[in-house]
Specification:
Strand content: under 5%
Order of helices and strands: HHHHH
Radius of gyration: 22 Å
Number of strands: 0
Structural class: mainly alpha
Number of helices: 5
Largest sheet: none
Mean pLDDT: 88
Helix content: 40-55%
Distance between the termini: 47 Å
Low-confidence stretches: none
Shape: elongated
Oligomer: single chain
Length: 92
Amino acid sequence: MTTTPKWDEARTSELTAIVGTESPVTVPTVEKAAVALGTTVRSIAAKLRKLGFEVNSMAKVTTSAFSADEAEQLANFVTENAGNFTYAEVLY
């Protein structure tokens, strides 16, 4: 098990210098700070939030499986055929 370095004034100053005025702080900036300070992205994000910074979610960004046009077509199909098909029948 590794030990996470403690936050002291020097490390905190280095972190705020890396972040600068970015708001909200992006995932790539958090990752950059984690590498520079030899700690985890979780530790960086938590420290920034504690300091009052807005930090983007560290969860992976998900994208829709459908384009906007496909999503509209699917929504129209489901609405027009309410009660006619099961979820499995629509899906497959």
